Structures are given as C-alpha cells and as structure tokens.
Amino acid sequence: MIQLIDSGAKPDAAALLERARQAIAARELPSGISLRVWGGRGSGKICSLCGRPIGSDDVEIELDGIEREGGVRFHSKCHLLWQEACKGPDH
Ligand SMILES: [Zn+2]
Which residues lie at CB < 5 A from ion ligand 1? Predict the structure, then answer.
C-alpha cells in the first residue's frame, strides 16, 4: 500500500495555469489541444506541469505523438489546466 505524504500547501490552480502558459510560451509543453491523449491509472511518473508524481489513486493523462524525451503526462486536473492555458489568456 502506498501512502502519499502531504507536504503542506498544494500549488493552487491559478499558479499552475500561469505555469502552464509560461511552459507553452517556452515550448516546454505543446500548445495544441487536438493531440490524442491516453488516460489511465497513475504510474508514479512525474507530471509535466506540477512536477509531482501521478499516483495510482489519480488519473494519468499522457499525450500521444509528442517528440519529447520521456513524453508529456499530466494529472487529470493538470491536463485540464494545460487545455485552458492552450486557449490563451483571452478566454
Ligand atoms: Zn500535475
């Protein structure tokens, strides 16, 4: 059984959304939401947005067709934030 340790304050959605926008601007993350994705149970790999492991009690969303070492994957909620960031600041 894996017990996750809560290390205190969680990054809030607004901060992660800003981070997503900066990462897209810096081309660290793709900017297209039409990419195919895979969803599944978290495998403990690191989320490309928030940098935290995606545990088996969470949903892991992996982007397909990304030419990036290690790929790009998100927590389900980070994936939503990334999609939001892809739309740009005017929405
Ligand atoms: Zn995340």
Answer: 47, 49-50, 75, 78
